[in-house]
Amino acid sequence: MPASHLLLALAIVAVWGTNFVVIKLCLASFPPFLFAALRYTFAFLPLVFFIPRPKVPWSNLCTYGVAIGVGQFGILYFAIDGRISPGLASLVIQTQVFFTIGFAMFFAKERLRLYQAVAVSVAMTGLAIIALHTDANTSFLGLALVVFAGLSWGVANTVSRRAGSINMLSYVVWASVFSLPPLFLISWIFEGGWEHISASLSSAPLGAWAGVLWQSWGNTLFGYAAWAWLLSKHPAAAVAPAPLLVPIFGMGASAYFLSESLPLWKVLAAGLVIAGLIVNLFWPSLEKWLRRGSG
Q1: pLDDT tens sequence across 197-212
Q2: What is the spatial distance between Cα 177 and Cα 12, in angstroms, rounded to a whole number?
Q3: What is the rounded CA–CA span in Å between residue 18 and residue 216?
Q4: Residue segments in the chain with a per-residue pLDDT below the cut of 50
């Protein structure tokens, strides 16, 4: 992967990682599924009037929109709303790596190399440590919900790759419309109906609305459009592990802004996850360097 693409991946994961603090703060003003619906409302509007629809099937746009909007973020917001701490959520969501690579092996017939299997195993060990340390701030339900969000992210990654070489900003904008009906419906049924939705919208402070726009423009339009573009240019096994850096930003920002504790087990878990990333990203270059040295 070229250096410019690596820097782009780093910028994406920095935005995604620090965003977990924004999510937690905004959930004090909006219920989770309404919050997700607002995110995709402003991702869709007003850009849909200025950007042509990408030349992909409606079914592809629909699957991506539902997977990323409802399956990933609707469920993730629901989990962070009292069921798992933001820092840990930023780590557990990285199960998307394993799902993305698995889907690529099944659908695109990409081959899993030995060093990638080792990298995945090391990272999974870090996630297993999380599962052994549930407490008052993190429940098994919260862990399961975030793993499901990771599965949905893996589905979205796979679907976006099948869209091919297209304008990914247009793709994300037009796919967002398919997130809206199920998110608003879930919010209306389970979050108190129109009266509660109306009260949340009218009472939310300016900072909460700024958080919504940050979700829509910073994370959705920049983050996911750029991420989908990277996936269209490189094998999934090379690109998918990059968000393993998200927990570094997520846990660091949560500790700084939300005073989330960082005991040794959290540091160890994050270290193992990052070690898996390093092995996956840099082993091919190291292998080539060793071959040249021996030759």
Answers
A1: 999 999 999 999 999 9
A2: 23
A3: 15
A4: none
CB 248 within 8 A of CB 17: yes
Q: Are 92 and 246 in contact (CB under 8 A)?
A: no
**Alpha carbons 185 and 191: distance in angstroms, whole number:** 10
Q: How many helices (H) and strands (E) does the chain have?
A: 16, 0
203-256 pLDDT, tens digit per residue, is: 999 999 999 999 898 888 888 778 778 877 877 667 766 767 788 889 889 999
Give the residue numbers spanning the domain of 87: 3-294
Residue type, 96: Q
Q: What is the number of structural domains in the chain? A: 1
* Residue listed under structure tokens 């080792």: 118
Q: DSSP of 82-147, one letter per residue?
A: TTS-HHHHHHHGGGHHHHHHHHHHHHS-PPPPHHHHHHHHHHHHHHHHHHT--BTTB-HHHHHHHH
Look at residue 247 and give its three-state secondary structure: helix
Q: How far apart are CA 5 and CA 11, in angstroms?
A: 10
Show the tokens assigned to 136: 């008052």
